[in-house]
Request: fold
Amino acid sequence: MIENENQLVEKTVGFIEILSSEVYEKTGVKMYIVALEDLGEMNLQEKESSYTYNLQNPYVLLFFSKNEKKINIIVSQEVERMFDKNEVYWDYIVPLIPNSAKELTNERISAFLLNGFVDMADRIAEFHNVRLEHNFPTQNKGVQIAVRTALYAMLFVLFVLFVFVYLRRK
Reply:
């Protein structure tokens, strides 16, 4: 954690610190979060540069500014090959972002930033073939695919039954 302007819930901050320490110990990658109320007098690129300037490689920085509604995942060159930033952003952060500014509470901010942070930690650990002790259980993709396939099969059977009943009545 580099900076938190009261955007994250205290329990989230504690978990992030524990997880980032474990990732660093096991992989050598330093993970940071900056959660700001606003950018102040700087533009986005200047503000991000002010934080990344002193970071030692390899690193990941999850940057968030509430008033500007900006989220960015900044990685060092070594980390770029470990995971796809866009995939983390679109699959693990964006789905949890509320639609209105009123719903953008500290709890919601903590939820989407933590979700993205945890997924990045998982991907870095997977790249280095290590297991993280202080992380959420990862979803089993095989089970997810099997359940989705079963649901589609049931919908198809239901559709066929409706067509059969409809044609039989005519």
